[in-house]
Amino acid sequence: MHATMPPWQAVFFDFDGVIADSTDVKARAFATLFAPYGADVQEAVVRYHLDNGGMPRHEKIRHCFITYAGKQVTETELAQAGATFSSLVLEEVVLAPLIPGALMSLQQLQQMNIPAFVVSGTPHDEMQLIVQRKGLGYFFQEVHGSPSSKAAIITDILTRYSFTPDRCLFIGDALADYQAAESTGLCFQGIVPHGASSSIFPENVRTSAVVTLSLYR
């Protein structure tokens, strides 16, 4: 435990790319889901997915069908596509290794009785199942996913627990995470993968390739 760790009231975590090293799992699933539409569509869909991390999955899939596959989808078709996607990723995400520093950070928070929350774009029920099957449920006060927006989830938690926003930290790897933190008044830590050519975050955002809680005050 770091003696310099700030007294956060709570820490909010995205999941893919922050807790689990599962970003590539989702990219492969998008490529598989859109394989019937050809290689060019697959490439565009995967690029959109990677450029829009943190977006609720159903919104992302709908956009890709309309924009890249040229197909208007019904709610039933969208639900079927979502179920197919879930079947492609569930086991792989459960088996994915943790991002360096994630487990240590969760253990530190637990030792200090600082609650941790998952705020993800993954569908809510699926996200809860993954956290439990990875044996991480013990570390989180609550686990949340889409279709609720990240800002809405955070606002609800801040209200229910009477947290002060600038005494809470959001750790994420996507612009959607940063924007959710900004809009709700949270401090933010950006996770940038090893080997990334540049950061997607504004210059004033502190970033790291590992999850850490001791960089902030």
From TrEMBL:
Pathway involvement of the protein, from the record: Organic acid metabolism; glycolate biosynthesis; glycolate from 2-phosphoglycolate: step 1/1
Q: Does the keyword Plastid apply?
A: no
Show the Pfam families listed in the entry. Hydrolase
Arranged from A to Z, the UniProt key words for this protein are: Hydrolase
Which top class of enzyme applies to this chain?
Answer: hydrolase
Q: Which reaction does it catalyse?
A: 2-phosphoglycolate + H2O = glycolate + phosphate
Enumerate the InterPro entries for this protein.
Answer: HAD-like_hydrolase_sf (IPR050155), HAD-like_sf (IPR036412), HAD_sf (IPR023214), PGP-like_dom2 (IPR023198)
Highest taxon of source: Bacteria
GO MF: phosphoglycolate phosphatase activity
Question: What transmembrane ranges does the database entry give?
Answer: none
Q: What is its EC number?
A: 3.1.3.18
Cellular component (GO) terms are: cytosol
According to its UniProt entry, the protein's GO biological process terms are: DNA repair
Q: So what family is this one in?
A: Belongs to the HAD-like hydrolase superfamily. CbbY/CbbZ/Gph/YieH family.
Q: What is this protein called?
A: phosphoglycolate phosphatase
